[in-house]
Structure formats: C-alpha cells, structure tokens
Amino acid sequence: MENSTANPENEPVIENRELNIWEALIPVFALIGMLAFNVFVFGDDALSGSNQFILLLGGGVAAIVGYFNKVKFDFMIDEVAKNIQSTAGAILILLMVGALAGTWLISGIIPTMIYYGLQILNPTIFLAACVIICSVISVATGSSWTTSATVGIALIGIADALGISLGMTAGAILSGAYFGDKMSPLSDTTNLAPAMAGTDLFTHIKYMALTTVPTITITLIAFIIIGLNLDTSGSTDTSAILNSIESSFTITPWLFLVPVVVIFLIVRKTSPLVALLIGTLMGAVAALIVQPNIVLAVSGMDDLNFISGYKGIMNAITVDTAVETDSEALNDLFASSGMAGMLGTIWLIICAMVFGGIMEAIGALARISKALLNMFHTTFGLFASTVFSCLALNVTASDQYLAIVVPGKMFDKAYKDKGLAPENLSRSLEDSGTVTSVLVPWNTCGAYHSGVLGVPVLSYAGYAFFNYLSPFMTLLFAAVGIKIKMLSEK
User: Fold this and answer.
1) How confident is the model at residue 488 (pLDDT cuts 50, 70, 90)?
2) What is the rounded CA–CA span in Å between residue 51 and residue 320?
3) Quick one: which H or E segment has residue 335?
4) Where are the transmembrane segments (predicted)?
5) How far apart are CA 408 and CA 83, in angstroms?
6) Which residues are 420's β-sheet partners?
C-alpha cells in the first residue's frame, strides 16, 4: 500500500473492559448482514453509493453499542477524524491517479502500451506475464498501488483488446503487485510489520520468503495452466484493432519515456504523490506535442491555441473524456473519468473509516482480537488466531494498516511467551493482513484497486491466487512445523 500521512505504529490500541465480546461483535454482524442484503439487491452497483451508506449505518450501530458502554460521542468522532486523517495520503494519490490516467490517455501513452502489447503478449502467456511484470515493478517501487495505477491500467487495456477476462487479468496483476508489496524493502507495510513484531526489516523479508516464494510459484503455475486453456480467439487477428489505434493516435515508442521516468522516480524513493504529479504533467506535455488534434477535440473548441490547449488538458485531468475510434470495443477502452472518476472510491474510503474509527473508539477491535487469542493455546492456534484476527480487521476496520497494527500489538507478548521469534509474528501479519486487504470491497485497498483497474472486487477475487493462498501457506507451515524459529535459536 502507499505511504500514509499518519504513523499507525504509534497509535495506541484502545481497550474497553466494560465491553464484552458479544457486544463487540454486534456491529460486525449487523454490517455483514446489511452488506450481504445490499449486494443481493444492487449487485456490482452496490459500490456506486449504497454500500457507503451501509458502512455509515454500521458505524451507527457501533456508536449505539459504545453509548451503552459509556464511550463519549465526542471521543468516537475524534477517532473517526484520526482514521480519516490517516487516509489523506491515499485520497490524494487516488485523485492524482485519476489525473494521470486522463493525460496518459489523450497523450497516447496508454494506447501505445496497448498497441505494442497486443503484438508481444498473446493470450497463452499473457496472465503469467502479468504476474511477473507486476512483481518486478512492485518490488522495484515497493507499491502495489503505483503498480496497479501505471502498468496495471495498461495490462487491463491489453486484456480487453485480446478478449481475456478482466477479472482474471486483475487477479494476475494484483497477485504480482502484492508479491512486491510484501517483499520490497521500500514498502511501508513491509517496514510496519517487523516494527510491530520487534524484529528487523531484512530478517523479516528473509523469513517471509519461506512462505512467499512457494505461494507465488503456485500462482504462476495456476495462471500458466489457465493460459494454456484460454480461448485464443482474441489474438487470431488483431490487425483491425491495431489499425484503429493507429488511425486515432500517433503511436511512437518515445511515449514510453513518461512511464519510465515515473517508475525511475519511485525507485529513487521519490514520494509517490510527487512522482504521479510529474507523470501527469509529462503526460500533458506529451499530449500537446504528439496528439494536438486529440487535445483540441477534448477541449471542444475550433482552433488549437493556448486557451484550447489548456482547456483540453484540464478536461482530461478532471472530468470525463473519450477518444473515438472506428472500433466500438476501443471506444469503451479509450475513455477516462479523470479525478472525478475517483470520487466514488474516495467516498467509500471515508465511510469505511467512519465505521473503523468508531469500532476502534469503543474498544471493539481490541476485544475481538483478545477473544481470538483466548480461543487457541497451541503454537498452531496462535498462528491461526493471528491470521483470523488480521482477516477480521480487514473486514471490519477496512484498513490494511489496522490489520497489521492491532494484531501486532495484541499478539506480541503471546509469541514471546511461547518462545517464538518475533519474525513469526511479522510474517503472519504480512501473509494475512497485507495481502487480503484487496479482497474486501469496502477496504481501502479493495476500493482503490477496483476503482483504478475498473474491475469489481468480486470479479477478480477468485483469481487473486497469491492473495488468498498466502494465509493458507503460513497456516500450513505452522501446522507442519516447517521453519518455525524459536527465540533460543537467535
């Protein structure tokens, strides 16, 4: 995930001794029930707004529980404010991603990626190639978010042109993106997990590789098998699509300089916000130089001059824009909503933070974690309770950071009491907290990637093999007793 403006590792876990486990679970059961009914009624359209209101209703239920347990309303609001403040960086990044997508469309950057990608990536190897490409980019950048917003968007476009399922493609993209999010020393979650557990970064990464490498290997094999059995009708004749792209855009490999510069900046540890802003501005300049006719068309004016150029660029950055071609399939593909297109996702994140903030304020998150801890007494049980706690927090708190911070704080002493080295805890936090966040539609990560890639979470979740196999892998290692490091070994 991207950097946040807050420091979640410094936030205390709020406990409420008057709150029992059943009271803590009331808002959870209420939220799950309401969301299930809402999705049944609205289907994929539930994320258009009704789910957001359901999250607020869930927060209302939590507030009522808090009121009867002597938690002041002002305190709940303060926790909500802290939660929303912690997402400020993510919200700004979302807006900038929308802006970047707009200028990269009218400049021809995304069409150029699709144009060359159609000639290189055939359906048989496409999905496995998505995993590898996104793994390399996310390890280099330390960011699943940036990977999804740059190369991910281009790969979705290529898949659409090849006739490959967008759900499968998004699953492959996110499998690779979260491999890097877990393993890169530049990733904030990869730094946060060992900080919570009390180990160092590179010990954590080395120990995490034991479960991560088998998981990504299984993921690659799965996508290779799927690729071998895909209907390849999408690649039998791409000449018509290629001609349509060429007739609408000026295609030149020089346009690849823009995404290369953005990736280079992030590798050099430039702030993602700064890198995305530079990418947006470079896309705008490229549009004026390479695609002046498209800029003029987007502006809605008759002559290209400073005013029409400015208006065309600003329209691409902020509102809906589309480039028409003689291919109906490409017309849907070559459309962007700019910053305005990200407002629905931002709305979802804010509402999720309201629910998570109130759950934190009334002490429900800490109570649920403690209950999970008390259910298990063996070493495997301790690992299992950590995994389930992380999963539960991704669902209830709707935030990847809280899914690492709260269990990290709650289980730290339990691992030490069992004589387990802290990297066991840090690995469990990443194997379950980091990667499963993208599988929850109302989680900040699920909402972000779904919004950026334009694929509903429920459409890609079944194909994000790496993301849902990771918790099973860490539980398998714990059950069999493979590479479980003890404190005495240190």
Assistant:
1) low
2) 24
3) strand 335-336
4) 20-41, 53-69, 89-118, 125-145, 151-174, 207-228, 248-267, 274-294, 339-359, 371-395, 460-482
5) 18
6) 486
